[in-house]
Amino acid sequence: MRLLGISGTITGSKTLVVVNKVLDELKSIHPEIEVELLDLKNFDLQFCDGRHPSDYNDDTKKVIETITSADFYVIGSPIFQGSITGVLKNLFDLVPPDVFRNKVMGFIATGGTYQHYLVIENQLKPIAGYFRAYVSPSYVYAHIDHFNHKNELIDKDVLLRVKNLASELAYMNQALSKTQYIK
User: Fold this and answer.
1) What is the CATH number of the domain that holds 28?
2) What integer pLDDT is reported at residue 182 of this predicted model?
3) Neighbouring residues of 67: CB distance < 8 A, sequence distance ≥ 6
4) What residues make up the domain containing 145?
5) Is 140 left (phi over 0), alpha (psi -120 to 50) or beta?
6) 147 in a domain, yes or no?
7) For 3-27, what is each residue's pLDDT tens digit?
8) Angle at CA 3, nearest 5°, toward 173 and 14?
9) What's the burial of 69, exposed, middle or buried (CB within 10 Å: 0-12/13-18/19+)?
10) How many domains does the chain have?
11) Distance separating alpha carbons of residues 75 and 155, to the nearest angstrom
């Protein structure tokens, strides 16, 4: 089983910090689960324009392949102007929807206002519903105040949510991987 953590931004680092925290937590409680990080900052993704996935540049094909081969996901986005990043939306558009079908997703968001957590409820969860993915009931929202001056996540409540999300992702993936689905 492989959990793919996706940092859905090409700017900043707080989202990456939280995604890594979830991956580290999952590794500590379930060392048998392979984890991988996909930091979109490291790839030159092309804009989705309806081409077949094999017709995009090498970075775009590699990202689509990495996502396709994962068993479950934790996906993070900073919130800008009350929405997920354009690069994450583009990523969702690039990946064929059936890739996510019957797979477990967990969400992370970071932002500068305490109301931005609503983007998880109002944007990310509906996208997962469209994909027919299963969504972990827990999610992590981290405000800029939850980090110290070294950009470390320090808020105890947020760190507890990280643990809960990691546990739920592993539990749900294990339970649902035993279920047979008609594709």
Assistant:
1) 3.40.50.360
2) 53
3) 4, 6, 38, 73, 91, 95, 99
4) 2-177
5) beta
6) yes
7) 999 999 999 999 999 999 999 999 9
8) 120
9) exposed
10) 1
11) 20
* d(C-alpha 141, C-alpha 81), whole Å: 16
- Say which residue the tokens 């047979």 belong to: 180
pTM of the model: 0.95
CB atoms within 10 A of CB 160: 12
User: Closest by alpha carbon to 162, among 27, 72, 12?
Assistant: 27
CB 10 within 8 A of CB 43: no
Question: Which residue in this structure is represented by tokens 């994909």?
Answer: 131
CB 68 within 8 A of CB 97: no
What DSSP string runs through 125-175? Answer: HHHHHHHT-EE-S--EEEEGGGB-TTS-B--HHHHHHHHHHHHHHHHHHHH
For the record, the structure tokens of 55 come out as 């017709």
